[in-house]
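Below is a filled-in request sheet from our internal design queue. Each sheet records the structural input a requester submitted and the sequence that came back. We keep these sheets so that new team members can see what a complete request looks like end to end.

REQUESTER: design group, bay 2
PRIORITY: normal
MODE: inverse folding
CHAIN LENGTH: 398
BACKBONE (tokenized):
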């Protein structure tokens, strides 16, 4: 629930009308922090950690380094990497079988959002049993999961600090969202060195995903002063530095800024939740296995315009954080300028202008609109949206 807009004075003289909970893991942040992985796993009870990763991280050499740090403190890691982008229900269940057979305990994820979501899925099944799709929705994970340590290799998904897991239902070709405070990791270990081996398209996609997290959490119905500050600073960092990570990929300063922007946007959205952009993007990703952040980059300007038509005031601070002039500018104009700023940034980092280039067809739109209405992220969108509104947004973004 959001707090009231009034400040709480020293001594509690002005109590908020409502209260907000704020979930966050322990964060270890900084260049070279991967060296702390063994100590982190050990501190949360690890003896035989289950390391979830993917072939790209193995090829880049990060898995060997991580395994070395785990072994250095006496741990006996088990590595599992049989998953694909947008983790599938059957992959998560296969990962759980491997986890159970190996006698593992603490679960470590090293990779992007797909690895981290898959690791959370394995953890859910490890303590709750059943099928991963049974946990779709809010607070349906009844039992605590094994301790988790997350090491993100991208600057955008926020999965390493969030209470979300997104899994693809392969039978229905949709993504399901699992939201539970049990999914907030014990430790998020963020080493910006890992960001330097991302391909350009993934860097662009995850950066735009983080920007979407920041913007949607700021205008969410469940925002509060704690999430607001994080979201605004994340917008400033991401709009100021994402281009630099594309043009100067090995330079430290832009990578540090994007790592921090991703972290702050992640902490904002896991507490304020999201909106229509994510609710819609999940459906496209489920249908076409399309890159989540790329879809967000296409959809976000359209959703900003839709939401601002009803509630433009919240977009003024966001426009200012993005470096746009707002003094004396009507809120409606500031919101439209922000939408253009997002689209320009997407152009600069190579994201396509429309969903058609990703494989979405006109005939898909009614189905996509229908499944969007079931997505948990739509509940906190600042403007009510029916099937007709959502379909019109998809059509505008086609």
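RETURNED SEQUENCE:
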């Amino acid at each position: 629930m959001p707090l009231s807009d009034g400040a709480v004075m020293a001594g509690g003289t002005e109590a908020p009308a409502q209260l907000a909970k704020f979930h966050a893991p322990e964060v270890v942040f900084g260049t070279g922090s991967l060296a702390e992985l063994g100590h982190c796993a050990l501190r949360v009870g690890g003896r035989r950690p289950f390391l979830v990763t993917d072939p790209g991280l193995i090829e880049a050499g990060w898995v060997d380094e991580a395994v070395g740090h785990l072994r250095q403190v006496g741990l006996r890691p088990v590595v599992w990497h049989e998953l694909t982008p947008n983790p599938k229900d059957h992959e998560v269940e296969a990962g759980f079988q491997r986890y159970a057979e190996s006698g593992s305990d603490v679960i470590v994820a090293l990779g992007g959002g797909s690895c981290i979501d898959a690791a959370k899925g394995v953890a859910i099944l490890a303590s709750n049993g059943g099928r991963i799709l049974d946990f779709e929705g809010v607070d349906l994970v009844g039992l605590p999961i094994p301790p988790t340590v997350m090491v993100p290799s991208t600057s955008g998904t926020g999965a390493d600090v969030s209470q979300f897991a997104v899994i693809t239902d392969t039978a229905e070709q949709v993504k399901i969202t699992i939201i539970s405070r049990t999914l907030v990791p014990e430790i998020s270990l963020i080493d910006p060195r890992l960001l330097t081996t991302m391909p350009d398209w993934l860097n662009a996609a995850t950066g735009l995903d983080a920007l979407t997290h920041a913007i949607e959490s700021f205008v969410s119905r469940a925002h509060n002063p704690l999430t607001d500050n994080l979201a605004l600073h994340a917008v400033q960092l991401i709009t100021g530095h994402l281009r630099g990570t594309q043009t100067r990929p090995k330079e430290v300063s832009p990578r540090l800024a994007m790592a921090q922007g991703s972290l702050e946007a992640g902490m904002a959205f896991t507490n304020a939740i999201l909106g229509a952009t994510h609710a819609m993007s999940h459906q496209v990703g489920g249908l076409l296995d399309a890159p989540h952040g790329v879809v967000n980059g296409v959809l976000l300007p359209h959703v900003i315009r839709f939401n601002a038509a009803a509630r433009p005031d919240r977009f003024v601070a966001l426009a200012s954080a993005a470096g746009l002039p707002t003094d004396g500018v009507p809120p409606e104009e500031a919101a439209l300028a922000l939408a253009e700023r997002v689209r320009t940034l997407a152009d600069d980092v190579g994201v396509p202008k429309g969903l058609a280039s990703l494989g979405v067809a006109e005939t898909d739109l009614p189905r996509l609109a229908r499944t969007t209405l079931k997505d948990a992220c739509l509940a906190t969108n600042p403007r009510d949206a029916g099937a007709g509104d959502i379909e019109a947004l998809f059509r505008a973004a086609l």
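SHEET NOTES:
- Confidence is low (pLDDT under 50) at residues 1-17.
- The first strand starts at residue 26 and ends at 29.
FILED BY: M.R.
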